[in-house]
Amino acid sequence: MIDWTSWTGTAIAIVIALLVAVAAVVALRLIAMIVSRKVPWVADLDRRVRRAWAAVSTVVALWIACAITQPVGEQWWPGLSRLFLILTILFGAWLIAALVSFGFERLLLRNDTTLVGADMRRRRTQVIVIHRLVLVFIGVAAVGTALFTFPELRVVGTSLLASAGIVSIIAGLAAQSIFGNLIAGIQIAFTDAIRVGDVVVVEGEWGRIGEINLSYVVVYIWDERRLVVPCSYFTTTPIETWTRHSDKILGTVYLELDWRVPMDAVREKFLEIVEASPAWDRRSAGAVVTDAVGGNVTVRFVMSAKDSSDQWDLRCEVRERLMTWLQQEHPEALPRTRVVVDEPATA
User: What is the DSSP string of 46-89?
Assistant: First the structure.
């Protein structure tokens, strides 16, 4: 027979527990609003952890309410208690992950005036990879802890961890492609092979490293396509990087011109163009003839820029303006094909 008096007490306890959980969430919100007036980032922290905090507070409050009332004496209580424990573990992991993510994001947003260019990209890449590794560890630890609440799995897990064959099992798993990419992702971050923001040429495509995940890297191609490459690719295949130690870069423009080209005038015009361009960083500029075969001469124009984006703009500007100037001022310098026509033999 159901003891309605006892269950009424349980219902009251549950209601009180829910009110306490709501009060905890509201209290956190009020504290965040007050503190954020002087510390602005507290408001963002509150926004990030609010749902996880509400979930943890609600589950713990309901668990306590049931543990001190009628359900604790029922046969099904051990199963319900284990469910509350598992939910507390999972929601607690969610809360910890939210706090960790917020901390890493604040670290990425922090302006360090001592780090620029390659050093800044190196730090950003390592922070991102460590962040993802920590999140994976939190998730694995939470799931493992939840599974170990079952006595049967605890015995099996303890025996497995204690066995001498665990090393060979881990080695066998690491040999699989997914774990190989995971290890490669960690290697990329801490060997400084590539970094987020680096300019690279991968599979014949020019772009920037946009994302470095634990198992794959996303290259942002210049035409807004995305190239997704396994991490192991960057540890086993040679790649071309333009920003290994610095963003500064030299660019070249080649023009095939006629032998009659006035090189002094061309060189003077080239220097005039680069000096007037905001894309030139004033480190280097020069024009020389590098080849003279096949009826034409090859003129190489070299110019420097602070990064690959400015270098591309500068190369295009130099090529276009020199072409236009030659058409207008020295058409005789434009490449042409010469044909010798023999006179027909007379009878």
Answer: HHHHHHHHHHHHHHHHHHHHHHTSGGGGSTTHHHHHHHHHHHHH
